[in-house]
From TrEMBL:
It is found in: Cell inner membrane. Mediates magnesium influx to the cytosol. This is Magnesium-transporting ATPase, P-type 1. GO terms for cellular component: plasma membrane. InterPro entries: ATPase_P-typ_cation-transptr_C, ATPase_P-typ_cation-transptr_N, ATPase_P-typ_cyto_dom_N, ATPase_P-typ_P_site, ATPase_P-typ_TM_dom_sf, ATPase_P-typ_transduc_dom_A_sf, ATPase_P-type_domA, HAD-like_sf. It is a multi-pass membrane protein. Keywords: ATP-binding, Calcium, Cell inner membrane, Cell membrane, Magnesium, Membrane, Metal-binding, Nucleotide-binding, Phosphoprotein, Translocase, Transmembrane, Transmembrane helix. SUPFAM superfamilies: Calcium ATPase, transduction domain A, Calcium ATPase, transmembrane domain M, HAD-like, Metal cation-transporting ATPase, ATP-binding domain N. Residues 71-144 form the Cation-transporting P-type ATPase N-terminal domain. GO terms for molecular function: ATP binding; ATP hydrolysis activity; metal ion binding; P-type magnesium transporter activity.
Length: 987
């Protein structure tokens, strides 16, 4: 064993009975040579004995990361160094190399997608495919190559479609590698010699726990970092939260357990970036041990099993079981009557083939592909075809507010004085501050400029000249500019400059530097009273509760500068005299004093655009200011959002908002678009709940704000597992990837993060919820058409098998030869190909449709015997009316009757209304059934029938068929109405 601590050990070695995440990250292999501080053990003991507060079902890896980062956030810096076995000088190059070998490259966890052969196997390994291959092999053995080829062709088509679908949707790869391609500034030491620290650049892949990193604006954090020093540090955590805004970080703070993880001020996370400021930090986690990697480690593993696919497989096993029983009985019965075992086995194979819904995979995939093409016309890319079907079952849509319900941009609302009245002066000075601000302009500055320009205000910024700027930082939370204007522009040699300081920023911070308040209407300035201060803060709080962002505006008049030197003869003589003084002066201090005077004159003479960038004002000038008023901003909702949500609600899809934004802002948006806000909750509140309370709160709440990415995931899973809902999730940020992956239907937009698009099932080319409404309708239509095929094929096949069994026992010979039976079944399957193009009643698509096997057996028991009754009626008529002891005549008549009855089943089952009267099928379905019926009749009544063993049928038989099918149609419709009355459903 080596000395020290094993960094981020995956298993506990110090105490096998301990499962605490902090202890597992700090496994002591041998005691520290200098001894480990007693306070460290006390702190660790406190953390290990603390009770867990869990709002959901965090994974073990998440618990480890949470406990580890909270331990660091609550510890002093010297203890943090002890935790990771590092020093204030950084790691030595030798130690860094050793840790790199031990911990591996600093690469986030990436999800490995299934290989192509794995996908091909999954597409192939389906019960129906296996049974068709077995039947095909038996057909070849029995010298029925035609039947074998047909079944193999069907298997090939269905497997190819399935494989192409899965392969296309699995080619996405997680693009977290973009975070590991930038150089990182790291402090390393050359050895044990003092003052040998070196600042080196290493690739992010080579950063290890214990490294000290130096960062500045634009840098990415290479791992989870505990801050050591910070200066006005502002970071963007949008890669984790996806929400608008930045976060202030500071090193000189000790956090407590009640602070949400992403709100920890002294911890920065891998993948986040520096917006402004600088600092140093100690890397405490790298690679798969970081918060980001833990967050994404379960991507690809969160999907719940597809209920529809499970249902299809259950039907497969049921039908296979029924088929084996029925085929065995039929083979035995046929062998008893014919004494020909080979012919009986071949007949049994044909019966098994007829009972198998051979077109099911093809029909399902064709229906889904048709839905995908239709959604593509609505500018919607469907990556996973099964998502269309799931959209039909979706009953809850979780929405990330930013950019979905709103425009994801700031819009200025109003400019108010200290008493809540709209005043132009407040807007004027707020505009000048934003206009002359040269530091990075934030969206709020753009909103002010857009408001002024679009509303025709003329504030004439050209009359002002910028003198200096005091940039924004998150300690002051305000920005100031110093402007001046010439009060005597007509006089060429006598200029008077009026200087003014304009400050804009967070309301409470602006109020902090104000000592006066201006009555804008009266032009009076009064001393700031406690009552004024309280009134303005209450007004700002009311605006914030309405979901508005608020900035305060204040001004301060600086000294008036009178300049007479500019362009006058005296200026020339002054500069000339200074030049002689510089030449004649011998001491350096005298020259510096003289040159300082020249600089002062040049500063007054040279225009602001040509001065040095070094300012003459700092934040100390921000005092004794006059408060003018407030400017409010709003992220406006989309015009289409309210209408789309209303249409989704009409179709039984409830909306829940899951956002990282503040609760007040989320409530304001939801009220604007019509989402109820009776029950709301925040992420920190969810963390305090036990599991049962968590599930109950999630079920009841419609607005869930300030959520972390893992909380969004747990909310989606709670709705799926406990609530048994089919959940869609619409989000576009990296922070939404977990929920997108876990949801039944993951939806993002084309402008979203690349990772979000990788794991979404559907990509919207436009941020318009109305596209989802159309998708829900198409999903339910696809589901309906799939259920039509399943029910009509199972009913027809089960009814036919019962008829074949009875006929075999009664006639003493095969009712249809294997070739005739396979041909009839093939024609019937071809006639069903048009089902994906069928339409559906409006009432059906108004409610979510979920897969259920509960009613399928009942449906078959009610409708299958009606088919058998029709077949047996035809058998009796043929036998007694025509005396059809001729096998060829009977088989011709039964072949035509069976095929026509099966095509009629398509129209009878496809709707709960009266076919051809109250509801007519789409023209592709009508054409396909008519064509197939015509082909079947022509086979039996033409020379083709001679090859098949048929004979010409008398015309009177077709008259009987008309009467028979009217009777079947009537009985079938009566059974349908009674079934609907009893079970309140049809498909």
């Amino acid at each position: 064993m080596s000395n020290g601590f094993k960094i981020f050990s995956g298993s506990s070695q110090g105490n096998p009975s301990s499962s605490d995440p902090v202890r597992e990250n700090l496994v002591e292999q041998n005691a520290h040579p200098n001894g480990f501080k007693t306070s460290v053990f006390r702190i660790l003991q406190r953390f290990m004995s603390a009770s867990k507060i869990d709002g959901g079902s965090r994974t073990e890896a998440e618990e480890k990361v949470y406990s580890w980062l909270y331990a660091l956030a609550q510890s002093e810096k010297d203890i943090v160094f002890e935790y990771v076995r590092s020093t204030e000088r950084g790691l030595s190059f030798t130690e860094a190399e050793r840790r790199l070998q031990e911990n591996g490259p600093n690469v986030p966890v990436e999800y490995t997608f299934p290989s192509w052969w794995h996908l091909l196997w999954n597409a192939f390994f389906h019960p129906f495919n296996i049974i068709l291959i077995v039947l095909s092999a038996l057909s070849y053995i029995a010298n029925d190559a035609t039947n074998g080829c047909i079944m193999l062709g069907l298997v090939f088509i269905s497997v190819s479609l399935r494989f192409y679908q899965e392969y296309s949707s699995s080619k996405a790869a997680m693009r977290l590698s973009e975070f590991v391609k930038c150089p990182i500034k790291v402090q390393r030491c050359a050895g044990r010699v003092v003052q040998t620290e070196l600042l080196v650049q290493v690739d992010q892949r080579d950063v290890v726990p214990g490294d000290i990193v130096i960062f500045e604006p634009g840098d990415l954090f290479p791992g989870d970092v505990r801050l050591l020093t910070s200066k006005h540090l502002v970071v963007s955590q949008s890669s984790l939260t996806g929400e608008f805004g930045t976060t202030e970080k500071t090193a000189d703070i000790r956090e407590d357990q009640s602070t949400p993880l992403l709100d920890l001020k002294n911890i920065c996370f891998m993948g986040t970036s520096v917006i402004s400021g600088s600092g140093t930090g100690l890397v405490v986690s790298t690679g798969p041990k970081t918060y980001m990697s833990t967050m994404f480690s379960n991507i690809g593993k969160q999907k719940l099993p597809d209920d529809f696919e499970k249902g299809i497989r259950r039907i497969s096993y049921v039908l296979i079981s029924f088929m084996l029983i029925a085929v065995t009985v039929i083979v035995v019965a046929d062998y008893i009557t014919s004494d020909d075992l080979t012919e009986s086995i071949l007949f049994g194979i044909s019966v098994a083939s007829a009972l198998t819904p051979q077109m099911l995979p093809l029909i399902v995939n064709t229906s889904l592909a048709k839905g995908a093409l239709a959604m593509a016309k609505d500018r919607c890319i469907v990556k996973s075809l099964t998502a269309i079907r799931d959209m039909g079952s979706m009953d809850i849509l979780c929405i990330d507010k930013t950019g979905t319900l709103t425009m994801n941009s700031a819009m200025m609302v109003n400019h108010l004085d200290s008493w809540g009245s709209t005043k132009e002066k407040v807007l004027c000075f707020g505009f000048l501050n934003s206009y002359f601000k040269t530091e990075q302009k934030y969206p709020l500055d753009d909103a002010i400029l857009a408001y002024v320009f679009t509303n025709g205000y003329r504030f004439e910024p050209s009359k002002w000249t910028k003198v200096d700027e005091i940039p924004f930082d998150f300690t002051r939370r305000r920005v100031s500019v110093v402007l001046e204007t010439d009060l005597n522009v007509k006089h060429k040699s006598n200029h008077t400059f009026n200087r003014i300081l304009i400050t804009k920023g967070a309301l409470e911070e602006v109020l902090r530097v104000c000592s006066c308040i201006e009555h804008v209407d009266r032009g009076e300035i009064a001393t700031f009273s406690e009552e004024d201060h309280k009134r303005i803060l209450n007004m700002g709080e009311d605006l914030s509760n309405d979901g508005l962002r608020v900035l305060g505006v204040a001004i301060k008049r600086l000294e008036t500068v009178r300049l007479i030197l500019l362009l006058s003869p005296s200026c020339f003589y002054f500069l000339l005299s200074v030049l002689f003084q510089l030449i004649l002066s011998h001491s350096m201090s005298s020259k510096i004093a003289i040159w300082t005077k020249v600089e002062e004159v040049i500063y007054l003479v040279v225009p602001a655009q040509r001065r040095s960038s070094t300012g003459i004002y700092d934040e100390t000038v921000e005092c004794d200011m006059v408060f003018l008023g407030l400017i409010s901003f709003f992220d406006p909702p989309k015009d289409s959002a309210k209408q789309a949500l209303w249409r989704l609600a009409e179709k039984g899809v409830k909306a829940k908002v899951l956002t990282g934004d503040s609760l007040s802002l989320a409530i304001r948006i939801c009220k604007e678009v019509g989402i109820r806000t009776t029950h709301v909750v925040t992420g920190p509140d969810l963390e305090l709940l036990n599991q049962d309370s968590f599930h109950e709160t999630v079920k009841r709440s419609t607005v869930l704000a300030r959520l972390t990415p893992t909380q969004k995931l747990r909310v989606v899973q709670s709705l799926q597992i406990v609530g048994e809902h089919v959940v869609g999730f619409l989000g576009d940020g990296v922070n939404d990837s977990l929920a997108l992956d876990a949801a039944n239907v993951g939806i993002t937009v084309d402008s979203g993060a690349s990772i979000a698009k990788d794991f979404a099932d559907i990509i919207l080319l436009e941020k318009d919820l109305n596209v989802l409404v159309a998708g829900v309708e198409r999903g339910r239509l696809t589901f309906a058409n799939t259920m039509k095929y399943i029910k009509m094929s199972v009913v027809a096949n089960v009814g036919s098998i019962l008829s074949l069994l009875i006929a075999t026992l009664v006639l003493g010979y095969e009712p249809l030869t294997p070739r005739q039976l396979v041909t009839q079944n093939f024609l019937y399957n071809v006639g069903q190909i048009a089902i994906p193009w069928d339409n559906m009643e409006e009432d059906y698509v108004k409610t979510p449709q979920k897969w259920s096997l509960k009613g399928l057996a009942t449906f078959i028991l009610w409708n299958g015997p009606v088919c058998s009754l029709c077949d047996i009626s035809a058998l009796l008529f043929i036998w007694f009316y025509y005396g059809a002891h001729s096998e060829s005549l009977f088989r011709s008549a039964w072949f035509v009757e069976g095929l026509l009855m099966q095509t009629l089943i398509i129209h009878l089952i496809r709707t709960e209304k009266i076919p051809f009267i109250q509801e007519i099928a789409s023209w592709p379905v009508i054409c396909s059934t008519v064509v197939i019926s015509a082909i079947g009749i022509s086979i039996a009544c033409t020379s083709i029938g001679d090859v098949m063993g048929f004979t010409t049928l008398p015309l009177s038989y077709f008259g009987f068929l008309v009467v028979l099918f009217i009777g079947y149609f009537t009985v079938g419709q009566i059974v349908k109405r009674v079934y609907i009355l009893v079970y309140k459903t049809w498909l």
